Amino acid sequence: METTCGIIFDVDGVIADTEGANARASTKVFSDMFGVEGVKREDFEEGIGRGAAEYIRAAARVHGLSLSDKQVEEATRARQENFLRILEKEPLEPFPGVSEIISAALARNYITVAIATSSNRDKSTAVLESAGIPYKKLIYVTGDDVTRKKPDPELFLTAARRMGVPPKYCVVIEDSPDGVKAALSAGCKCIAVTNTAAAGRLSGAHLVVSSLSRVCVERIIELIPGGD
What we know:
By secondary structure, this protein is an alpha/beta fold. The chain has helices at about 20-35, 50-60, 70-90, 100-105, 120-130, 155-165, 175-185, 215-220, and strands at about 5-10, 110-115, 140, 170-175, 190-195, 205-210. It has a six-stranded parallel β-sheet, sandwiched between helices. Helix 7 links the parallel strand 4 (about 170-175) and strand 5. The longest helix has 21 residues, at about 70-90.
């Protein structure tokens, strides 16, 4: 492989299983702040991958709540506090295959690795540290660095630019339909892992797998033009 290429990892649902903690942290917000009980994990589904505000708004719509921007801001702040408390008690394990892919990629001088997530830096850093991901060695882009969230491609275009790699030579690893749309809109190749959504909802990806343990760096590079 002569061309420098990039591998871009989403965080929530790709690096580690954070969705359970996200939902628990958020259902507590609905109970504590809005007096709404019975909020379920699936109530947040439409907001997955779109950032904390849309995550809260998704469940609010399900339960018929019309929240002001200020209420959403307060709810997302409380959600993050709840989430970080959960992580303190329940450290995360990276999904199978994640650490292996990152280590193998870093060992190759023609591959640049990035983290690109809609989450803010404080929350995503807590996830990466809990899961033991060497993020300080990687290009790192968060929702704090962009103005538009997925399915807009800005996040992945920013990551590609910071890596110094054209999007067509980047492979994004995602777990949500909006993440897949953002990757494709950016002009990247995309591998989708069914940690969060069913395979049928991720069908736009170039490759859909049940686990990243089924993917090696060589298979990722094959998706890039000239990478076989």
